[in-house]
TrEMBL record:
GO terms for molecular function: ATP binding; tetrahydrofolylpolyglutamate synthase activity; UDP-N-acetylmuramoylalanine-D-glutamate ligase activity. The keyword Signal does not apply. Signal peptide: none annotated. It comes from marine metagenome. The keyword Cytoplasm does not apply. Keywords: ATP-binding, Cell cycle, Cell division, Ligase, Nucleotide-binding. GO terms for cellular component: cytoplasm. This is Mur ligase central domain-containing protein. PROSITE patterns: FOLYLPOLYGLU_SYNT_1.
Amino acid sequence: MIVGTSYFDGSIAILGLARSGMATARALMAGGNQVLAWDDSPERVKAAAQAGIPVQKGPDFDWRGIAVLVPSPGIPLNHSTMVSVRTAGVDILGDVEILWRAMSERQFVGITGTNGKSTTTALIGHILDHARQTVQTGGNLGTPALSLDALWAEGTYVLEMSSFQLDLTPAMSFDIAVLLNITPDHLDRHGSMNAYITAKRNIFRPGRLKTAV
């Protein structure tokens, strides 16, 4: 598990308590952060409470004192909480962004595309592993980002990135970025093909980027 370093000036709200949400809550709490979570599933809320994760009764957070919202990637952007957090001026980050900030000295390889990204991510991870490189593979594929093992500085994270996840990485810059293809998909979420393409282009955010494919 990645321990989310306590660098947030305030509490952290977590919206959605499926696998990535639970992993995020555990990692952030292990790093000394204060969290407050919610999910519309009573079963997930119960499981979180039993795990010692503070939960609230509804989706309407009191944004005073909250530094950042970490939503599950599948939460629609027009969800009432997503609308209210933008109005309140609170930052929105995804779990992959938190992983990148916590493990910033490691190499990050990001793979996105409408089709083929799971296979490509698994293949790159397999090649690096057989080359005796220290590697962790996850993201949209399999293991949630903050459930991956912490790597030494020479390690590499190979992450499958959906457009939903890329929408939640406001600063993240991959060392190696791969865009396989783009065809119309998730337009109900993004609103237009142009918006979908814009989300995918985040894989190529400058900064650390050395190789773009």
